[in-house]
């Protein structure tokens, strides 16, 4: 599966032809790719939220305890797997309008490879900050769109003139699936599983702490 990932990032035209040929021989060839690489964002999220943490205000670091971070990672992994299969169902359903006749497994496999950039973007969760998340998700979204438009005529074997419309429909359904899976997942984690947060306040090293810090009167006079 690794050669397909590398080729998708370097020569997507050739990659889609190879993937379609492999999927015709073994219809569940995509499973290892999906189950393995979906672990990347889940594991990175666990490390980032448990050991690195994030900051909402100056001099404060927030982390999750082990239980909460593990629960979040498992939910993310399960949502990725479920979302891929749901998208595969819709992709096959829409294919009837574009004179394509892929199997369900081929549609799920196609989605699994299209979202590969998002698997790699999961590395950004190692240091969970707003700007890193935005940057990696935008980059992954752009390249995933490119893979989608290149892959539709190659993998689905449809007229290239229909690729843009098919791709736009796929993106629209993908956003709906994302919202309808992610929102319940987050609500389940926050309201039912009740995550535990750990807050660390960084001490100002220019002063002593506790009794060692000098107390000043108004006007700068010391006691």
Polypeptide structure, described:
It is a single chain. By secondary structure, the chain is mostly helical. It has one domain (2-195). Helix content is 67%, strand content 4%. It is built from 9 helices and 2 strands, in the order H-H-H-H-E-H-H-H-H-H-E. The chain has a two-stranded antiparallel ribbon with strand order 1-2.
Short précis:
This protein has 223 residues and is mainly alpha-helical. It has helices at 2-10, 12-25, 30-37, 39-52, 66-95, 104-114, 116-121, 130-156, 163-192; strands at 60-64, 197-201. It has nine helices and two strands, in the order H-H-H-H-E-H-H-H-H-H-E.
Break the fold down into its secondary structure elements and pairings.
Layout: H1 2-10, H2 12-25, H3 30-37, H4 39-52, E1 60-64, H5 66-95, H6 104-114, H7 116-121, H8 130-156, H9 163-192, E2 197-201
Antiparallel strand pairs: 1-2
Number of domains: 1
**Biggest sheet, in brief?**
2 strands, antiparallel
N-to-C order of helices and strands: HHHHEHHHHHE
Mean pLDDT: 85
- Proportion in β-strands: under 5%
Helical residues, percent: 55-70%
Structural shape: elongated
Radius of gyration: 23 Å
Beginning-to-end CA distance, first to last residue: 71 Å
Strand order of the largest sheet: 1-2
Structural class: mainly alpha
């Amino acid at each position: 599966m690794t050669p397909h990932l590398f080729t998708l990032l370097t020569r997507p035209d050739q990659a889609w032809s190879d993937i379609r040929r492999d999927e015709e021989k073994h219809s569940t060839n995509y499973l290892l790719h999906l189950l393995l690489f979906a672990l990347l964002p889940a594991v990175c999220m666990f490390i980032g939220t448990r050991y690195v943490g994030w900051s909402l205000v100056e001099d404060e670091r927030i982390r999750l305890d082990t239980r909460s971070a593990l629960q979040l990672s498992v939910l993310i992994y399960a949502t990725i797997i479920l979302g891929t299969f749901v998208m595969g169902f819709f992709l096959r359903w829409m294919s009837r309008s574009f004179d394509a006749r892929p199997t369900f497994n081929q549609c799920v496999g196609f989605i699994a490879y299209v979202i590969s950039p998002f698997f790699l973007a999961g590395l950004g969760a190692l240091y969970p900050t707003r700007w890193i998340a935005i940057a990696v998700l935008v980059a992954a979204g752009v390249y995933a769109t490119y893979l989608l438009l290149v892959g539709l005529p190659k993998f689905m074997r449809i007229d290239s003139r229909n690729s843009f419309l098919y791709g736009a429909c796929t993106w629209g359904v993908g956003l709906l699936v994302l919202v309808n899976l992610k929102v319940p997942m987050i609500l389940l984690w926050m309201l039912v599983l009740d995550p535990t947060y750990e807050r660390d306040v960084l001490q100002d090293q220019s002063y002593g702490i506790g009794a060692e810090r000098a107390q000043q009167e108004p006007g700068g006079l010391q006691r």
